[in-house]
Amino acid sequence: MKVLWELIGVMFMALSTVAGTNKVAEIELNFWREKLPSVQVPDTIAASASPLTQEEVNTFIEIIKGGNLRFHAIQFCNSAKLLCSQSVPVVHTTTSDYSLHIHDFESDQLMNDIFFSHEELKEGGQITLPDFQTPWKAFLPRNLSQLIPFSTAALSDVLSSFGISDTSNMALNMAATLTECEAEPEQGEIKVCTTSIEGMIEFVLSYFSSSDHLEHVSHPAPTADSGKKVKISKVVERVSEPSNLAPLVCHRFVYPYGVFYCHSINGTLTFTMELQVIENKGNHYNATALCHPNMQNKGSDYCHMVFGDSLLWLNKDKA
User: Fold this and answer.
1) Average of per-residue pLDDT values in the chain
2) What's the rounded Cα separation, in Å, for the pair 70 and 67?
């Protein structure tokens, strides 16, 4: 058996040297163009598509089906551009963090750096830009990601397969992602976690029923000004959806491969903003914010910005 997998490893190395035709990324992006013909592929999605070739995918499928990923974890992570580092920071990306910390929101600086209250969303208000240094990596093609268990119950085996210590920061991030994905929806919430670009597209289409008037909204992450205070120069609420469909937003969560947490919450409000970094009257940015109703504390909506890899989905003729 050892000889067999050594031969597969040699075959994989040979395939890796073949000039890169038949890239899986083009298949993923063509799936987007087919299902969402009137919606341009965002740069962040194009950059996160899988770099694997179909030959490499087929090889890794055999490795995973044989239960031998742990012997090829380094090759897998490097070739697929995954995040398998042990020493990544613990990243608080979960949308429930505000609700979990509502009792000490005023004294919790971390929560203040991620969320802000509806009352702060006004011209002249000051909020903090989030940390945009999260090292997002590529998505896996769906036929690969579906072979890797995505559950808390299987986390120990997945960590072992990827060669990740169960006491590492990466393990903590993965556990937090799975906990959030497996949590029951809040009242009035629809949610799903998808482990592929194809899965995200299909959920968006199932939510809106059609792509005819669909648009996504996002803004480049102002990484140079991460964590800085900004002043709100202008804020405008977008018109509510006449269809009674709440806006749908898809957030990236930390995992070795791409995971989107897509959710909508009834009563969510959408705002466009113009921001300026306060320090030295710095850079100006356009931004979008969502304010969700807090079901645990009525009247205390919590808001966050939509930047970078997060995608806000709306019906453009109804927004």
Assistant:
1) 83
2) 8
